Amino acid sequence: EIVMTQSPATLSVSPGERATLSCRASQTFSSNLAWYQQKPGQAPRLLIYGASTRATGVPARFSGSGSGTEFTLTISSLQSEDFAVYYCQQYNNWCSFGQGTKLEIK
Amino acid sequence: QVQLVQSGGGVVQPGRSLRLSCAASGFTFNIYTMYWVRQAPGQGLEWVALISDDGSNKYYSDSVKGRFTISRDNSKNTLYLQMNSLRAEDTAVYYCARVSLLGATTTYFQHWGQGTLVTVSS
Questions:
Q1: Of A11, A15, A54, A88, which sits most exposed with the smallest number of CB within 10 A?
Q2: Higher-confidence position of B65 and A30
Q3: What is the pLDDT of residues B29-86, one digit of tens each?
Q4: What is the pLDDT of residue B32?
């Protein structure tokens, strides 16, 4: 089983600033990684797949990068609607999710 | 558009059973692998079970193996999760989800149901 570890658990950032979220895998793989955004009471929303490809309708301020064991989600200029919990998911070997990073307003 | 509409959650006593349903529309249901994913209160996401497009292959997480059964009725475009011998630690919001890639068993999820809360408590 591939264990996904996200950091930090909580990230406090001011609107308009950049946010960088990290996801580390216990085993190396190339690009079978996705990022999701989840708001309270809602299902997860796909943001990024293939480590760096934005899903349909996702704003360009969201970008993903990385390979191997280190992956990053960057939000270039935070908008009010971006404050949420973010999860990474590997689908290289079955399926496993990170424990989430809560992005909160500073 | 793709829609996954869930039903069947609720409060159940430990050791009892419950069945969840997920009605699909807006796509050709019988050519996609389907998943159940759950989220315990305040916790992260955990895949629970998956079923191949024709129902011939089923896989379960260790935490539910032997107690839960995933199934589908392609004539009704509906996915099911039969949950037996429920435990307090099964308390969670359960989501159905469709794989995003045809022919893939493991992939990312573009489409999710709205979620249904299962509470196991005496």
A1: A15
A2: B65
A3: 999 999 999 999 999 999 999 999 999 999 999 999 999 999 999 999 999 999 999 9
A4: 95
Round the average pLDDT of chain A to a whole number and report it.
96
How far apart CA B34 and CA B25 sit, in angstroms, is 13
C-alpha A4/C-alpha A22 separation (Å) is 10
Q: Chain A residue with minimal CA distance to B48?
A: A95
- Residue B47 makes CB contacts below 8 A (sequence gap 6+) with A94, A95, A96, A97, B35, B36, B37, B61
Residue A23: strand pairing partners: A6, A71
| Beta carbons of A44 and B107 less than 8 Å apart | no
What are the φ/ψ torsions at residue A70 (nearest 5 degrees)? -120, 125
B95 vs B112: CA distance, rounded Å: 7
Predicted pLDDT at A50: 96
Contacts of A93 in chain B (CB under 8 A): 106
Q: Which long-range contacts (CB under 8 A, 24 or more apart) does B47-53 make?
A: B47/A94, B47/A95, B47/A96, B47/A97, B48/B81, B48/B94, B49/B81, B50/B105, B51/B79, B52/B105
Pairing of strands A85-90, A33-38: antiparallel
Q: How far is CA B45 from the centre of its chain?
A: 12
